[in-house]
Amino acid sequence: MMNRRAMLQGALGAGAAGGMLLADMNRSAKAQDTSPIAVGSALPMSGIAAADGIEFKNGLDLAAEEINAAGGILGRPVEIHIEDTKEMGADLVSQSMQRLIDRFNTPVLINGYNLGTNMIEMDVAADNDVIMMHYNTLISHNEKFKTDPERYYGSFQGDPPEFWYGPGCLNFLKSLSDAGTWKAPNKKIAIIPSANEYSIVIANAIRDQAKDYGFEVSLFETVPFPTNQWGPTLAKLRQDPPAAIIVTHFLPQDLAQFMVQFLTQPTNSLVYMQYGPSLPAFREIGGETINGVIYSTVVGCLPDDFSKPFRESYRAKFGPNSAYITGSQTYDGLWMWAIAAAIAGGPGEPFNKEQVSKVAAVMRRNVYRGVNGTYRADPAGQSAYCYPTQTADPSLGMPHQFLQHQDYKTDPKLIAPALYATDTFLLPPWIK
Question: Which residues form the Leucine-binding protein domain (predicted)?
């Protein structure tokens, strides 16, 4: 009989705890099939998002290594297969996913993010009856799921959609001001998205709710994607300095250039940026100019005791400058699916809707505490709940993390939300 305690620890934990569950299942399973299970992943291994693609692959490799060390899934090892989505887009991503299914008979696809797909990934998964988990961080996933939940039963978003960045950012700024740790010179905020769905949805959510949090939008300017020429935008910011500059563009090299150009003539404004500052390239290019920058992510490895073994293993395997905050996403995704497949009695295979539906049902049922926080599938969209703006219960939502670069030579500091924070906010050095 399965050890109940080990099962519960595995279902709610990650890494070693998950290994306990799989090892327990493997001891009791009477599996005759010991052939490898192919796990597919369509990742941007080249092109503008290659830095993230590499980390997503790293996360999968580490999770597979740990799962196999625990005995695999009911005695079967997992094998990772990657297709490069290059510059991404609907055609490249869908073709990459289909090749993985056709060549390797993959019952699951665990992607990082891909841009410009219009969530075609969900159709590939539905047409082939496979599980697909991704980290596109898009509300369009939820909206598409709602159109036909039965068809898209196997599609999961491993984090909250980007919409929640909007109220989360505004609430964070208001909290800083209310606490007196930041004395805002005015109520103005400037919002600078780039021309892509992710950036614009976040920017619109901030713009539309700014008044509710006591702010007024003094500038809303969309820049090209990608871009490193910030001069015209900076000129407008300097003509009418806001209390906070909110940049929802997310490529790290471009955001580093923003800071280099901003500091030639800074304004007394907080600078908040989207996701890109989490990647090593931001620190490498920006150097000392990034000290004081705030950024946030609704998914990323937490700097807590629970994730410490993962962080140490990741950097030992992939190097001291590797970005575990990104690799942690696919790492949790693979562990989550592996546990669900084991509980369901096996992973199934393409077009085996009966068995794949069982795996999907476990993924919807389980509450999983991984290195990124807690994943619980929102039944209305099959993405994670966001804490604290979507759910007030930290045990049932993934934390919206706010981090600050306080010294570019070290990792950024987690300054919110309060239950997870390890450090406190520091006033940026350019604010006088």
Answer: 36-382
Shared domain for 8 and 149, answered yes or no, is yes
Residues in Cβ contact with 68 at an 8 Å cutoff, skipping those fewer than 6 apart: 77, 78
Q: Which domain holds residue 209?
A: 163-297+400-416
- Examine residue 66 and state whether it is found in any structural domain, yes or no: yes
Q: What span, in angstroms and rounded, lies between the C-alpha atoms of 219 and 209?
A: 15
Give yes or no for a contact between 394 and 176, defined as CB atoms under 8 angstroms apart: no
Question: How confident is the prediction along the chain (432 residues), in pLDDT tens digits per residue?
Answer: 333 333 333 444 456 556 666 656 555 554 468 999 999 999 999 998 998 999 999 999 999 999 999 999 999 999 999 999 999 999 999 999 999 999 999 999 999 999 999 999 999 999 999 999 999 999 999 999 999 999 999 999 999 999 999 999 999 999 999 999 999 999 999 999 999 999 999 999 999 999 999 999 999 999 999 999 999 999 999 999 999 999 999 999 999 999 999 999 999 999 999 989 988 889 999 999 999 999 999 999 999 999 999 999 999 999 998 999 999 999 999 999 999 999 999 999 999 999 999 999 999 999 999 999 999 999 999 999 999 999 999 999 999 999 999 999 998 999 999 999 999 999 999 998
Whether residue 326 is found in the same domain as residue 372: yes
Q: Is the pTM of this model over 0.85?
A: yes
CATH number, domain of 358, equals: 3.40.50.2300
Kindly state the helix (H) or strand (E) to which residue 239 belongs, with its residue range: helix 231-239
